[in-house]
Amino acid sequence: TGRKILPALTAATGQMADAIKGARRSDDSILTITAGSAFAVHWLVPRLGRFSDLHPHYQLRFVATTKLVDLARSDIDLGIRLGTGTWPDVIAERLVGQQAFPVCAPVVGRSLSQPSDLLRVPVLFDEGTSFSWDLWLEKAGLSNAPPLSGPSFTDPLLAFSAALAGQGVMLGWSLLVA
After folding, report:
1. DSSP secondary-structure letter at 121?
2. pTM of the complete model
3. Per-residue pLDDT tens for 24-76?
4. Taking Cα atoms as reference points, which of 158, 103, 168, 98 lies closest to residue 126?
5. Hey, how many other C-beta atoms are within 10 angstroms of the C-beta on 63?
6. Nearest CA among 168, 95, 178, 86 for reference residue 133
7. Are the beta carbons of 37 and 153 closer than 8 angstroms?
8. Alpha helices of the chain — where are they, by DSSP H?
9. What is the rounded distance in angstroms from the CA atom of residue 173 to the CA atom of residue 86?
10. Nearest to 122 by CA among 177, 170, 164, 158
11. What is the largest CA-CA distance in the chain?
12. What's the burial of 15, exposed, middle or buried (CB within 10 Å: 0-12/13-18/19+)?
């Protein structure tokens, strides 16, 4: 019975979502943007004054997350993500280039002189980033290295704070560590 009614329920749920989305967008003066917190803090927020001066009729609303959002089924108007720009069904435009590299406090850095030294210190994982330790290790000539270990964080600002506190090495990127 469930399989018989699934197509109708799926269609009805989609229609309800579209109706709700249409009702939410009744105020075209609100521009809702989603971006990761680190990007918002270090790049986007410092530029808001200029945007508001140029576009005073918009009221800005921010949703801080690194999760991909279905823009067609949400009240989000614009998503800014760190990555390669190859997301399905999305028009992507590069805003700023980034390089990924290990970062740590000097107390940890003193014991590191080559990439393989990362195998013996805690590594801090940023769950929301598209930068991969595996890819970095491969480019550093350590493609067959055992898995790195250490705590993981859902927000890069937390991982960066842990790195600053000497708790391990983070794979940072230009904008965050500048």
Report:
1. S
2. 0.69
3. 555 678 999 988 888 888 888 998 889 999 999 999 999 988 888 887 778 88
4. 158
5. 15
6. 168
7. no
8. 2-24, 37-39, 48-54, 106-109, 133-139, 156-164, 174-177
9. 19
10. 170
11. 65
12. exposed
